[in-house]
Design goal:
Pfam families: Ribosomal_S9. With 332 residues, the protein is of the alpha+beta class. The protein is built from ten helices and five strands; from the N terminus they run ααααααββββααβαα.
Length: 332
């Protein structure tokens, strides 16, 4: 009996745990749970059931001593509220940042557009203002970024000693451009004049004149309608040129134009050798026929009788016997 009345140490520990006074002044204290706690954690462990607390199964409420149930529910509600607040705050901050960036970009674009408009106005004033030579230069030569930069650099260096003023440079460039165009126009006009000038040219005696050159020979030829006489340096051409090949070359212009035996030819030739004199006379006869009748030009041009033969004797080279020939080579 006495052993039943004496309390053991384990009974005393349970009594202290199951004291009638609660640990908090309120049965369900409201405290903000820490953010790092897991949703299923409890502040207080459930007491071990060493003895019956529900009247041997008759008491259905088993959560009389579970103080963590209300705290967990309140913590969940608070977490959901804080999450919603945080999400709303993040969205608002991001929208504000985007709006500020868009405003800054618009301001930068407006400033760049203003600068471009000011530069365009300055260029228009230069092109239409008193410095019109600058605009004429750009219009004449074609506007490019490199040229414009170089001209602007020259304008900045206008006051430096030793450099010509910008106006002189502009005038020189403008004159060069106009000269190029005028040269082309002059050449075109010359060609037109030559084509127009291809008319019959006859002197007061009714003769057509032509000059011919070949190597070192120069021939002056006069032709007029006749019975086919050919005089060279006051001699008959068959006497002056005894070789048949040379005489055939002299008569080629007449055979090509189909006027053989209808002209009287009188010519003087000097310089060079026989072949050179033959070539000079043939060129002079062809040019004289062209002057007499421009319609005879196509057949003569086709065979090349109106082209001056520019071939000359090749000069002797030093260290050689002739122009190409070398001395005999001796090994020893």
């Amino acid at each position: 009996m006495l052993s039943r009345l004496i309390l053991k140490a384990s009974h005393l520990r349970l009594l202290t745990l199951l004291s009638s006074k609660p640990h908090f002044p309120q049965p369900n204290p409201i405290t903000k749970p820490p953010s790092f706690l897991l949703p299923n954690t409890h502040y207080f462990p459930k007491p071990p059931h060493f003895y019956s607390t529900n009247n041997n199964g008759n008491n259905e409420n088993e959560d009389d001593w579970d103080f963590s149930v209300g705290v967990e529910e309140e913590g969940k509600v608070a977490d959901e509220l804080f999450k919603n607040v945080e999400l709303e705050g993040d969205d608002g901050v991001e929208e504000d940042m985007l709006l500020e960036k868009a405003k800054e970009n618009k301001k930068l674009e407006e400033e760049e557009n203003k600068k471009l408009e000011e530069e365009e106005k300055g260029l228009i004033e230069v092109l239409k203002g008193p410095d019109r030579a600058f605009g004429d230069l750009i219009a004449a030569s074609g506007i490019t970024d490199e040229m414009l930069d170089s001209l602007i650099a020259l304008k900045d260096l206008e006051g430096i000693q030793g450099l010509p003023p910008l106006t002189e440079i502009e005038n020189m460039r403008y004159e060069k451009n106009t000269k190029r165009s005028s040269r082309a126009d002059i050449e075109r006009q010359k060609q037109e004049e030559v084509t127009r000038a291809r008319v019959r040219e006859v002197d007061t005696k009714g003769r057509a004149y032509g000059t011919g050159k070949r190597k070192c020979s120069i021939a002056r030829v006069w032709i007029q309608p006749g019975d086919g006489k050919f005089v060279v340096n006051d001699k008959e051409f068959d006497v002056y040129f005894p070789m048949l090949d040379h005489r055939a070359d002299l008569l080629r212009p007449f055979t090509e134009t189909k006027t053989l035996g209808t002209w009287n030819v009188n010519c003087t030739v000097k310089g060079g050798g026989v072949s050179g004199q033959v070539g000079a006379i043939r060129l002079g006869v062809s040019r004289a026929l062209q002057c007499w009748d421009p319609n005879l030009r196509p057949p003569l041009k086709k065979v090349g009788f109106l082209t001056r033969d520019s071939r000359v004797v090749e000069r002797k080279k030093p260290g050689k016997a002739k122009a190409r020939k070398s001395f005999q080579w001796v090994k020893r």
